[in-house]
Amino acid sequence: MNYTSREVYEFISKQTHDLIVERKTCTVSGQPFAIFQSDLDFYTKISPTFDWRKFQIPTPTLCPEERLRRRLLFKNERKLFRSTCWLSGRSIITTHAPNKWFTVYGVQERRSDKRNPMDYGRNYNSEISFFEQYNDLYRSVPQIAMLNDNGVSSENIEYCQNVAYSKNCYLTTVAWKLENTYYSSNMAWWERLVDCFFTMESQHCYECTDSNHLYACFWLSYSYECQRCYFWQNLIGCKDCIWCVNLSNKQFYIFNEQYTKEEYGKEKERILLILRTNPAQLKQKFNDFVSKQVHKATSTNNAINTYGSNLYNAQNAIMSYNIQNARDTKYCIFGDTITDAMDLTVGWELELCYESNVPDHSYKTCFSVFCRSCTNVLYSEMCHHCQDCFGCVGLRNKQYCILNKQYTKEEYEMLVATIITHMQNTWERWQFFPFRVAPYDYNISTVMDYFSLTSWQAKESWYTRYDQVEEINIPEWIKLISADTLPLDSTMISNDIIHDAIVCEISQRPFRILKSELEFYKKWWLPFPRKHPDIRFEERIKRMPSKHLYLRTCDYSGETMLSVYPIWEPFPVYNEESFNKIFYS
């Protein structure tokens, strides 16, 4: 696991004129990390006042990497289990493994008036730690099988986790305002995206990552405002390009060489024919080409005073990744329209939030998980349209509640002040939920995508694991077809394949093909997939650089810079000024 080095903190401090006021040692990893003056200013800004007393949020005891790891333990985006709704008895698909013994309701049942989360409210007990009491409440309130707004603001997204305002999406996670999108993650806006990752405001794309405003693009990364391009990286405003890297406002290019429109059309037809029959050959050819090309230190577009990567329309984004339309953020990953925030994992349209997962449309919501449209909510989970709540689970349209129990404003403020004081004495004050409260085992949660641990490593660190092999029950009427027996050319695949199950050539796990998905492959002459969606996701993640900054030297100017590429990478890396001077001038 990579931890931010002392030199990186000092470089950022110098470049931003943000003084390092404290150096600390992480209580979990033992790694040193820095506290900036801007951190203290932020903590003061969000520190709440209860019973006429201001409760100052202290500096964290965990380094940024361990804070992220802990938050990711509270997210499961792709591991699904078959279960039964405890309320209706109907069969459901859920993110909760059976070993956790949560009471799990289907999405419809969880939203219905048949359950009242206030029924689980309890009095605060000063003889017991707060997290112990919260954990007891958390495991009493029925959990939702899948987190989405299917049937409310969305339609036909039943098998999507953390998706909203969308239509006809399948096995897509962490997304909003999408249509006809499959097997994609961390997305927003527009339609027909397949196997994509953080491809924003785009249409008709396949295997694209970390890009914005694309149309009909395939196998693309770190690019903006492009159309009809295949196998490319770091392009801006390009059209009709194949196997290209580091171009701006070009058309009819192959391997960075200019073609006439007629020449390009003939060569494209030849290449697409190979793509339909031997895609591995084309991918390897492009990878060989990219490995010799200059790489930009970090991927940013319209970014000012930023030190992170995959930032679009961002200002003062420090050690943040995959964020657009953001200002004054630090240690945040995945978000859109974020203002003045720290330590967030996924967020949309929020301000002054801290140490939370998905505090969408919220203000001053801290130490919380999936609390949407909330104000001044602390230590809560799955609360929507609430304000002034502390330690609550599953509430809607509530105010002045503690552990799911209603109080008056005066009672609320006095009791919260008492709880915070008690948390200070038990070393719980202003810490995110401990990992023992997490609803998911280590290898089930999203943490495995970024901080992978072996079974032995996880258990050595006292993390739980779920190692039970789930039985796959395939109905007798569904035919199993080995993927390697199918043609790669999708146009040769019979439409009857949508009734069958395909056995992944890597994992041997079965998967299905949707009718609209098959139509997409055929329309764009794409190869037919032979790997399970999870395998494709894992390969996609491995292709992307880590969300980590290294101090290194620009291979063009010799200047010291920060990059997501370490010094041992074989290709040259340029800082933004040198890169733009050479390639986009």
Description:
The protein is of the alpha/beta class. It is 21% helix and 32% strand. Strands 9, 10, 11, 12, 13, 14, 15, 16, 17 and 18 form a 10-stranded mixed beta sheet that branches. A 4-stranded parallel beta sheet has the order 20-21-22-23. Helix 6 (261-277) crosses helix 7 (279-290). The longest helix is centred in the middle third of the chain and has 17 residues, at 261-277. The two termini are 38 Å apart. 44% of the residues are buried.
Q: Tell me how many strands there are.
A: 33
Shape: globular
Find the structural class using helix and strand composition. Answer: alpha/beta
Q: How large is the radius of gyration?
A: 25 Å
Number of DSSP helical runs: 12
